[in-house]
């Protein structure tokens, strides 16, 4: 009995480091953030409760936030849609174990292991407005005039999408390759005996079998894309404006940073954070339910 | 073999696409090797005429005297001891500490949650799973306030302590430990081994593949961590590599500075790329495993 008690005590002692830090830097801040989102906290004052005012302003009066939401949704849909398509296509092209396939997979995966800030700085340099930027050199060879890539608001989201797809498709490809290689060969053999065309095999065997992987790639892609920050901050931020020219690249997290840590409206920033929370939470619930299916992979 | 040739033809666009993957990297490397005068030449050269390392350090540049045709190298741009190495050391220290620390405390907790019968473990585990759905940016403002109140802004503990309890690591280790039979641990208990010894000598070795997979994610995440450091770092010395690079980008925006900036980007990328090339197999397996379980 005493032995049992001592073991129980040890159990709790072993739990304490994780649990303490988990409660202190995650659970408590989360509760605190919810509280602050209903206050006018500015980092210095004693937070005063203002009810739903932050949320009312955010959702009905703040044009910049509405703009940020719109931008984020357009960006997320384009980046995740194209990213998933390219991931699947790459996996179909290079799922083998021969060395050319392995080298191709390594090349496409390379951005996933490269310093993300370094990549953003590289893109900024590639899209330099001078004739010596790589992008302008390439279109110059094609006989076109130089473009002010980063100063043209209508190009901002396409460039952000390009950077996201370029950097992320290798990661999705790896997941799809694993999915493809887990489909039993017998299915295809049986289909061929029945005279199914290549397209029909893809349509009626490959795609349905890959559905759990697709769900996983799409949902995790959505969650990552909604949190986009670095690309905007490094590539598009102007001297006084985080969102680039005419706020064309303003997104949710950059706006949170802008309100919270440039203007020190910490209560208002917390309200922004909770809007993000709701979006991600719903997506994660979908992921959790469909994630169970991936387990059978 | 007609189908094989057909396959190669179908793959052709993707082989071409791989060139667009390599081109930016190539551009980065040649930008580092081009001296300032060559960097802004129009049209640009695709093979550096006079490759040099002046983008790291240019001996011809002096602070008090304008020397046309020369720019500060990367290591001449920070007023801290050891220049850019200081930030590399900061990043290496922070990344290793968080990786080792978070794996140790998560494995302890995972061991208790799977192999000990304690009150409330279900509730605890549910709470931890639920927390994985929270975008961490939601805790940004309160954690900043906590750091300020503890006087931890601009310190290593400000980087490390809040990053140690990682729910996804615990979740992954719990799943992994479920597949290990309880008898192994019971047998050790019968032999008189204490709980700490069981954890250190039995549980940790059994967890090795899971720890390897998780360490890859943690290392990549912490090496690239940007938003949190951006908020808590104030001094020059305490920046990690991403913040140091971002500062370079804010202070020097002209084309003449891009050589030094790319030099910094290259130094920032080499460790993780080398890490990847060495442990390539574990990377892909880790991604698939976490995808399957997560």
UniProtKB/TrEMBL annotation, chain A:
Its main location: membrane. It is found in: Cell membrane. Belongs to the binding-protein-dependent transport system permease family. This is Sugar ABC transporter permease. One of its GO terms (biological process) is transmembrane transport. It comes from Acrocarpospora corrugata. Keywords: Cell membrane, Membrane, Transmembrane, Transmembrane helix, Transport. It is a multi-pass membrane protein. PANTHER family: ABC TRANSPORTER PERMEASE PROTEIN (PTHR30193), INNER MEMBRANE ABC TRANSPORTER PERMEASE PROTEIN YCJO (PTHR30193:SF37). Residues 69-287 form the ABC transmembrane type-1 domain. The lineage of its organism: Bacteria, Bacillati, Actinomycetota, Actinomycetes, Streptosporangiales. InterPro entries: ABC_transporter_permease, MetI-like, MetI-like_sf. The keyword Membrane applies. The chain crosses the membrane at residues 12-31, 73-94, 106-126, 155-178, 213-236, 266-288. One of its GO terms (cellular component) is plasma membrane.
Automatic annotation (TrEMBL), chain B:
It holds the Pfam family BPD_transp_1. Residues 88-279 form the ABC transmembrane type-1 domain. One of its GO terms (biological process) is transmembrane transport. Coiled coil: none annotated. CDD domains: TM_PBP2. One of its GO terms (cellular component) is plasma membrane. InterPro entries: MetI-like, MetI-like_sf. It is a multi-pass membrane protein. Keywords: Cell membrane, Membrane, Transmembrane, Transmembrane helix, Transport. The keyword Membrane applies. The chain crosses the membrane at residues 12-33, 87-111, 123-147, 159-177, 198-221, 259-279. It is found in: Cell membrane. PANTHER family: ABC TRANSPORTER PERMEASE PROTEIN MG189-RELATED-RELATED, LACTOSE TRANSPORT SYSTEM PERMEASE PROTEIN LACG. Belongs to the binding-protein-dependent transport system permease family. This is Sugar ABC transporter permease. It comes from Acrocarpospora corrugata. The lineage of its organism: Bacteria, Bacillati, Actinomycetota, Actinomycetes, Streptosporangiales.
